[in-house]
Amino acid sequence: MNENVSVIFGLAGGLALFLYGMNSMSDALQKAAGERMKKILEFLTKNPIMGALAGALVTAVLQSSSATTVMVIGFVSAGLMKLPQAISVIFGANIGTTMTAQLIAFKISDYIYPIIFIGFMIYFISKKEKIKNIGMVIFSFGLLFEGIEIMGSVMKPLANSPIFIDMMGKVSEIPVLGVLLGLVMTLVVQSSSATIAVLQNFAAQAGPDGVTSVIGLAGAIPILLGDNIGTTITALLASIGQSKNAKRTAVAHSVFNITGSMVFIWIIPVLVKFVEFISPKGNEVDIISRQIANAHTTFNVVCTLIWLPLIPLMVKIVTWLVRGNDEKATVFWKPKYLDDKVVSQPAAAIYLVANEVDHLSELAASMLGTMKDAITEKQDRLWQEKLDESFHAVKKLSDLLNNYITRLFSSGNLTEEQSEQAAVHLYVSNNIDRIADRCGEVSEICKQMNEEGKQMSEKALSDLRECIRISQSLFEGSMEAVREGNQDYAQEVIGVKDKLRKAQKKLKKDHLKRIKAKECDVSMTKEFSQILYNLDRIADGCIGIAEEAVS
User: Fold this and answer.
1) What's this model's pTM, rounded to 2 decimal places?
2) Share of the chain above pLDDT 70, in %
């Protein structure tokens, strides 16, 4: 095989193995972290310093600042995070992403195969999910380094190529060329961690003298700056079609990296001296990988320290760049929180699902209130139209929510604990869907009564009003029981159901007494009984929801 072709395929294969190892390690880390990821996400609502810390920790787990940024954009778009909070998390994410470069700088070539073997054996032998995930983290970590070794070995011939040496010399002399090279590399690969790994491996190749790097730290830094700019493209793409604040969050990521790169490109000699001072001493080819990692960390830490107190200024900049306000949504059944781009990040996705279930419950509570008015306001047509609208809104949102949860299950990224949480949300959504079906049945009864010109007596309407009030209380109590995970609330709801059933029996007897006393029309018995039956089924749906807090 031609030497150039061999280098290209070797580089591509090593890069593919590196990316696969990094993605697998990220998935396994998320599963191993489990509920800790949820606790980290709770930090996102704190002050800017806590937000930056959370951004760094989440990115260290996800192994990608782009993934963290996409997640934050989803939260901002859903209204779960304000713009200043999101910007602080983005700053922290830029620090967290340097962890990968620091890991790559370790010289563990002699231990790669034992690491891969140990990781595989832990994963293969263990029956416990958490242990298997730890095994996969170790196994993927080994694959990641094997990919790096492959890239390093195939790039050795380039270090002796006069053409390539001359090209790298120009990059060192004209930093802008290095920035453009890093930008293009990251745009192609869609991972700054991968391109920085390639840079670290190439820089570790010795020049003609066998001691100095083929590119040197001064030549590597501009490429590093370009990598940092290129990684913002993923976030910009993720913000397309999102809210204004979500777009501003993505733009803040770009402004952070672009302004930082514009400043650092003028002080490269100062950065080189500082990095050489804090890095280990020795031959350049032996330590340059660590120097590049330290330069990467220094760049992001310094930029974060400068920008953190200037978050209000960043907010003004991105608000000026992305002008206007979001149009108010006219279709209220559309999801407020779900984001397809976050499906691959289970902890964040389930957090969004939980909020969407609350949104669905709000629509359902509104539907129950509208049903009471549709029945008791002398069968007013306007209230029946509103009930139909509420019914269809709950049904559509429930379908979308169920499809989203199903996609979470099919992704294969959920831990056992996360699967249980998703199952609870799915079960609650299905019960709300059944409650909506019963409200739809009541709506049809009201329409039929209108068409036939029938009306219930004031006493019958009063009895139904009280029955619906109890059903509303049951629904609110059941949702609170699930939301808080409170078994006492759940038991209270289950106890109220018995009272409701007794009340419904009494209402039927009272209705018959009114018929006998000719206070009610006998022809209304069927409709009255059907409405009571549907209210009973609604109560069953509430019990089904409450039982999720008990189980």
Assistant:
1) 0.79
2) 83
Residue 327: C-alpha distances to residues 242, 243, 330, 360, 473 (Å):
12, 9, 9, 21, 34
Position 4 scores a pLDDT of 67
pLDDT band at 290 (very low <50, low <70, confident <90, very high): very high
Residue 304, pLDDT score: 93
* Buried b or exposed e, range 213-223, using 16+ CB within 10 angstroms: bbbbbbbbbbb
465 within 8 A of 376, measured Cβ to Cβ: yes
Q: How many residues does the chain have?
A: 551
Question: Is residue 300 scored above 90 in pLDDT?
Answer: yes
pLDDT in tens, 6-24: 777 887 888 888 888 877 8
What are the pLDDT digits (tens) for 335-394? 888 888 888 888 888 888 989 999 999 999 988 888 888 776 655 567 777 888 888 888
Distance CA 159, CA 356 (A): 55
CB 342 within 8 A of CB 37: no
- DSSP letter at 412 equals T
- Alpha-carbon span 323 to 241, nearest angstrom: 15
State the Cα angle at 79 between 75 and 83, rounded to 5°: 75
Range in 36-45, 144-153, 474-483 the model is least confident about:
36-45
Q: Are 534 and 438 in contact (CB under 8 A)?
A: yes
Alpha-carbon dihedral 369, 371, 374, 377, rounded to 10 degrees: -50
Q: Token pair for residue 133?
A: 């995930």
User: Is residue 63 within 8 Å of 21, Cβ to Cβ?
Assistant: no
Secondary structure percentages of the chain, helix, strand, coil, to 5:
85, 0, 15
**Which residues on adjacent β-strands are paired with residue 206?**
213
Nearest 10 degrees: Cα torsion 185, 190, 192, 194: -80
* 465 CB burial (10 A radius; 0-12, 13-18, 19+): middle
The first and second tokens of residue 502, run together, are 């007794």
Which tokens belong to 346?
A: 């289970």
DSSP codes of every residue in 236-295: HHHTTTS-HHHHHHHHHHHHHHHHHHHHHTTSHHHHHHHHHHHSPPS-HHHHHHHHHHHH
Supply the angle between the helices 284-307 and 83-96 in degrees, to the nearest 10. 170
Crossing angle for the helix pair 3-33 and 48-62, to the nearest 10 degrees: 120
What one-character DSSP code corresponds to residue 209?
Answer: T
Query: What is the average pLDDT value for the chain, to the nearest integer?
Result: 81
Show the tokens assigned to 102.
Answer: 């620091």
